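User: My collaborator sent over this chain with a note saying "see what the structure looks like." That's all I know about it. Can you take a look?
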Amino acid sequence: MAGTGETPTTGLAKLLQDERFLVPTHQRDFSWSVDEVALLIDDVEAAYDRKDEQYFVGLMVFMGSEGPEKIVLDGQQRLATAVIYFSAVRNWLGKYSEYRKDADKIDTWFIGRSELGQIDAEPRIILNSANHQTFLNYVVKAVDINDLKMLLSKLKRFDRNRKLIEAAIYCHERIEDFAKENPPDLVKNRLINVILYFRESVGVVRLDVKNEDTAFTIFETLNDRGVELSPLDLVKNFLFRTAASTKSSQRLRDMEDRWIDMMSTLSTVKADAFLKAFWTSRHGRIQATNLFAQFKEQYKAPDDALNVSIDMLSVAEQYAALETAEHSVWAPYSETARQHVRSLKLLGARQMHPILLAAIAKFDSAEMERLLKLLEAITVRYQLIGGGRTGKLEIECARLAQAIYVGKIVDGAGERPVVTARAVFQECKEIYPSDAAFGDEFRTARETNGQKAVYIIRALERELRRREQQGRAAENEPGALTLEHILPKNPGAEWAAEIEEDPSFREDCVHRYGNFCLQVGGDNRRVGRLSFEDKKKLYLKSQSNLTNSIPVHYKVWDRDSVDSRQAHMANLAVSVWRFQ
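Assistant: Without extra context I'll predict from the sequence alone. Here is the result:
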């Protein structure tokens, strides 16, 4: 990877022995659960027991600093966990006078050391501002497990040091439990050998980068569950450094409070996807690898950094609301608007997110409802049924989002042009297939996702009822219905004649919309693999008009029947997903 620096492989504990590390002040806290701590130690001990020559724990990314420490951009959880475990080993060894020299070596090599003239040890890894002092007092320094438990009892449930102390207690108890069942010399040898294995054989791919821009590019392109520092963390560090340059402690505290609130808001969604959606909603499309550099350039002034942190907090709540129509953001909107939100969530309309984030800031509730209907129609016409290219959809959605936000898409003339859904519609013909094109695509469309198939069939059912009631609002819409395949997915002997006559019938038609209908849950289980003749008797009693019409129009169920029924469905679909 050009420009990224060296990528040697080294032992995890050897990193601690050879250098000191610094976690940036505003990087995330120590966040590993006891289960994650246990998993790392279990895996290492299992590899040691198997006599594996090497056990890799992934990539760690570092950057130089003005001081002697390396800045940890990715790897703090693994490094800190190793130190916590080594601390517990040191404490157990230190209880025995004959093992104290080994305890001192572990302390000096891997946990902390003091230079000549210093009283307190300097830790091998300095954690962030929230964890630093607790880490010094309860991990770097040797403390009794009862002191750890006393501290834990005083910490609130969401205290930022709670996971750190829980990890320390777990490591102490793990060693004590092992020591209860084995003689001291065996315990000592086991613990020392595991630590030496951490040093020599627990492999880390070390990557030293020159700057955070390079790190941002790496994190955007890696697909590795070991990556701990996200692009959002890099943006956070940048904003805090910019705020700190004003030397205003109040401004820094306010920004930290906002960031904590924002991350709490984003805790139920993919937080890193938020960053790109936020940028796109304000500035248009951008390649992920360029996002951090552009973000720094756009918000390099302290006032700009302050203002964007305020905007991001507000937009984070809106972004979280895209996942659930019950969110308070949608409270001022109609039930129809909230149903569109549910549908977009079900359809997985991620590319629409920037448009929605821009529109919430610019549209009134009535226009927002119309826009939601338009976006749902586009998602079905272009993506779900049309199978349109995701890349093209993303490009167009980014263009529309920025145009909405900066006021380029407006209706009317004069002094006060208005941003409307109709104006957006006029700009999105590239991703809104015509009625004819959509109808043609629907006639042959297939779907293997049961939830999406039910969504489509229910919408068609509502349209059929509307037409049969001469345009009046549909009444008595069927309730809890489930998807039924007329030709079963796994047809038995009851369908032998149809399959024998057309051997590719099942493969070609079982997932076609024309082969779907809705049945009450219990009836669906009873219908199962029945023959078509037997199914027709049950379909006649169905609450669904689309279902109870099947026996009326089809004497047999074959390829022609599927084609005919799906053509009828296509006619309904064109009306359902049409923006007017």
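A starting point for your reply to your collaborator: DSSP finds 28 helices and ten strands in the chain.
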